[in-house]
Amino acid sequence: MGSFRNYHRNIKIRIGQIFLTDMVAGAIFPFIAIYFANYFGATVTGILLIANVIISLFVGLYGGYYSDLIGRKKLMVLAGVIRMIAFSIMTLANSPIWLSPEITFLMAILITASFGLDGPAADAMIIDITKPSERKGVYALLYWSFNLAFAVGGILGALTFNNYLFELLLTMTLTSIASNILIIFFISETMEKPQTIDDKNVLKQMFHSYKDVAGDKLFILFVVAGLLIQSIENQLENYIAIRLNNDMPIQEILGFAVSGVEMVGFLKSENTIIVVVLTVFITKIVTRFKESDTFLWSIAIFTIGYVGISFFNNIWLLFGFMILATVGELMRVPIQSDFLASIPTDDKRSSYMAVYGLVFNGSMMISSLFVTLGGIFPKEIMSILIMLCGLTGIIIMKYIMSDLKAKRDAQATT
After folding, report:
1. Could you tell me if 328 and 298 are in contact, meaning their C-beta atoms sit under 8 angstroms apart?
2. Helix (H, G, I), strand (E, B), or coil: what is residue 192?
3. DSSP H or E run through 98
4. Three-state secondary-structure class, residue 252
5. What CATH number has the domain spanning 4-188+202-412?
6. Torsions phi, psi of 94, nearest 5?
7. Which residues lie below 8 Å from residue 102, measured CB to CB, with a gap of 6+?
8. How far apart are CA 386 and CA 381, in angstroms?
9. Residues 124 and 10: beta-carbon distance below 8 Å
10. Which of 10, 97, 265, 388 is a good FRET partner for 378, with 20 to 30 A between their CA atoms?
C-alpha cells in the first residue's frame, strides 16, 4: 500500500473522514427501507426510494460538473453542512417529543443527495494529489477504511435501530458534525485554477461536457455492467432486508435470539469484516490466475452468493452464502477498479466520475424497484431476477474485455 506517512495530508484526513461518514451510513441506511416499509408499505417504499435515487443522480451530475469549475473543497463543505443539518432534523423527527416518517424521508433525500454532490469532487481530489504509482495503494486503503466503517456501523445499527433509534440518530448527528470539522479545517483545496462560471450557459456547458462522456461507448457499457452487478449487493439493504424482516423466523445464535432485522446487520457486518481481514490475502491469490477468467468468475460467484441470501432463511446458510458473495467481491473489485482507472480522459476526470456515479445511483434505483416488485412477486421470482442481473453483467463484461485490457495496457506504456 506504499508508505502512509508519505501520502498527502488530505489523504490521511480523508481516510478518517470516510470512516466517520461511512460509519453513519452503515448504521442507518441498511435499515432505512425497513423503517419506511413499516410506515408506508413495501410498494410505496419502493417508489419513494426510487425518487430518492433519481434526485441524488441529478445532484451528482451537477456536482461532477461544478467540481471542475469551482474546486473540490467547496462542494465537499457544502455537502457536509447539508448532511449535518439533515441528520439533526431526522433526529428530532424520531425523538420522544416528535415522530414524523415523512420528515425522516425528506431528510433521507437530502443526505443521499449530499453524497451525490461531493462524491465526484472527493474522487477527483484523490486523483489530483496522487501519483499513478501510488494510486492502487491509496485506493486499497480507502476501500479498507470504507468497509471497516460499514462493519462498525452495521453492528451499531443492528443492535440499536429497532429499540434505540433516537439515541442512534443523535450519535450519528454528532459524528456527522465531527466529519464536517475535518473537511472545513483540515482538508486543503487541490484544484489549482478554479474557473469562472458563466451562469447563462451552465446547462449548455454541462450538456457538452457530458455529451463527450456519453460518446465513449466502452465506458458506457462498463457503467451498465457495473450498475447491474452493484444492484445485486444493494439488495441486502432493500428487498432482502424487507424479506428477511417479514419471512425469517427468530432463530438462535449461541443462545441469543436473532430476528430478520438483526440478521441484515450481521450479514452486512460479516461482509465488511471479511473484506477488511482478507483483502490482501485474496488479492495475492487471484494474481496467480488469468485476469479475464478471474474477473468473470468473480462476478458469477458473487451473484450465486446473493441469490442464495435472497432465497433462504436459515441463519447458517445465510452466513455461508455471504462468505461466497464476499469472496467473489474481493476477487472482482481490484480488477474492476483497475479497468475503471484506465478509461477516463484527464480533462474530463470529474465528469467521468460523476457519470460513473450511475453505478451507485442506478443500482440503487434498480434495488428500490425490487422492493416494489418484492411486494408483488414471490421470493422465487425475485431470486431469478437477481440472478439475471448478474448474468447480464457477465455477458457485457466479457464482450468488452479485450477493449478494456487494450486501453489499460496502452496507458501503461505511455
Report:
1. yes
2. coil
3. strand 98-99
4. strand
5. 1.20.1250.20
6. -130, 30
7. none
8. 9
9. no
10. 265
* 3-class state of residue 256 by DSSP: strand
Residues 241 and 44: their CA atoms lie apart, in Å, by 16
Region of 299 on the Ramachandran plot (φ > 0 left; ψ -120 to 50 alpha; else beta): alpha
Angstrom CA distances, 154 to 8, 28, 175, 264, stand at: 30, 8, 15, 9
Contact indicator for 129, 190 with CB cutoff of 8 Å = yes
**Sequence-distant (≥ 6) Cβ neighbours of residue 145 within 8 angstroms:** 15, 18, 19, 22
Question: 338-388, pLDDT tens digit by residue?
Answer: 788 777 776 667 778 778 877 877 887 788 889 889 888 999 999 999 999
Task: Copy the grid coordinates of residue 76.
Answer: 465537499
Q: Which tens digits make up the pLDDT trace of 57-85?
A: 788 888 777 777 777 888 889 999 999 99
Residue 116 in grid coordinates: 451525490
Q: Which of 6, 352, 67 is nearest to 189 (CA)?
A: 67
Closest Cα to residue 362, out of 53, 43, 113, 51? 53
pTM: 0.74
User: Which of 21, 347, 66 is CA-nearest to residue 213?
Assistant: 347
Cell readout for 77 is: 463543505
